[in-house]
Amino acid sequence: MSYQVLARKYRPQKFSEVIGQEHVTRTLKNAIEQERIAHGYIFSGHRGIGKTTVARILAMALNCRSSDKPVSEPCGVCDSCTEIRAGNAVDVIEIDAATNRGIDEIRELREAARYRPARDRFKIYILDEAHQITDAAFNALLKTLEEPPSHVVFMLATTQPEDIPQTIRSRCQHFSFRAVKFEQIVEQLRDLCGRENIQADEDALALLAEAGDGSMRDALSILDQAIASSEGKLSADSVRQLIGVAPSGVLEEIMQAVARSSSQDILQTVDRLLADGQNPVHFARQLVRFLRNATVARVAGTDSSLLQISSDERARVARVAELFSEEDLARHLQIMLRTHSELGYRQEQRFHLELGLLKLAHAQRLLPLEQLLSGVEANRGAITERKLTLAPEPKKSEPPVPSRPFVSPFAADSARKGTPRSEFSAENSGATVRPSTAATVTMPIVMGSAAPAVAAQPAPEKETGPHPGGVEQVRLAVMNALAKADQSILCSMLDAGEWKVEGSQLIISIAASAALVEMSVSVEAKRLIIAGASGAMGRPMKLQIVPGANPVMMPGKSTPSFANGSSRARAEQEPVVQRMKEKFGAEIRTVIDYRKNK
Question: The pTM is what?
């Protein structure tokens, strides 16, 4: 006799032999026992998980001759069961819908369904790959499928149930098959190797089950190939070489190089793998799975049932999970997923693979945003290089105005929302406070775990009167913040205004209409102004912008003041308009004075 592959040789012949589909087999057996047999079934799910097999078993159970009625488990020895298993039963017609998908074939099926079965109880039609039937053919089948003769049962097997029209699905009972679990595939492979007298390592069986990807048929096909290529015993190395995957030790080696940020080691390892014939797409897919398992091991532990891998693979995954944090592993997994998706349609796949792996190494150098924002004080001196002079230089005879410290953006935001001052005092931040006759200087706030827990200092008393000595300092801090955020037009508008500090309120009077102020000063700009003023004054500040005031002449400024005049004259003196003229050569066409329209 000719050789029969394992997938056919050990094909289940009873409901109890089907692996991983208990929710389907239990329902079908109960329906038969209760005599609640439907006229149409749809079996959908992943490839190689038993859809057609269950359809054949159901056909044998309905037509089994061991009883005068359908049985929950076919006997497997009667003429009907033997013919159905061999595929030559007269009353069980299997149709490949991928090739018989047209309306003419469905018309022939509909005409033949009118006749009673030749010998068995039911005439059963099994349509494999049913989703490939055309819409016109499905429409021709609608009436017959909805009200078929009492002796006809339809079974539709498909991997894409969403492509079957809803009108067909509503007329059938739909059973969704699940992918077979990793442990179930390993157990079945171990049992079949025992029947075939084949010695196999546990790691080899795990590799075969993982390569099956939830499909029992795929795993059996690879097992057939592995038995043919082995010399009496299946080892993990032989199976790995057969299916073309990289050794797991190489994946661990790659991730250790990533942890060291060693780009050279990464490139050398990739070069060695590609020289051995590894496919870049397959390697990227394998690394994606490895990183996923490492992430699961980091989150749920190495003993989690979510890890469907061998014991040796668990050990490697556990060692890699200890090298990275959960956030790092999630970032690495995202990078490799993007790299794997790009390799499918990119030229020069090696270069894209190397680039993706180098991104993993570079990702190790990324710093948290909070840490960067907390260290802005170190780069504060670079702001003065923007050549933006916002206040006159003090005379040599005058004492220098003490520089206000930088306040963390988090502290300024909390101050704006009304958080008590003591939460970001100097001692809470771990800063050193040096007494000064001019002002008390608060050092930069240290964010995160580096800040020691020390008792909070009492908040300084609020200044209730004007603060003329601090106005220019507030102006300088606000202008620097706006200039750094590329708000140069707003800087020009505010620089020509009159600034006052009254208590905890900064009042800026500018020569502009209310509509222009609302358009120019965005929410983000207000936040920058408040944060800069709060940092300069060392306490929470509020902002009030008063539109429509006359401009004030500043030292060294040549901007003319105006109190009256036409709308066009006032518009021409607007700093924003002048800026637009200088940059883009704009001209005024129409002027609307909203104050006159009110």
Answer: 0.58
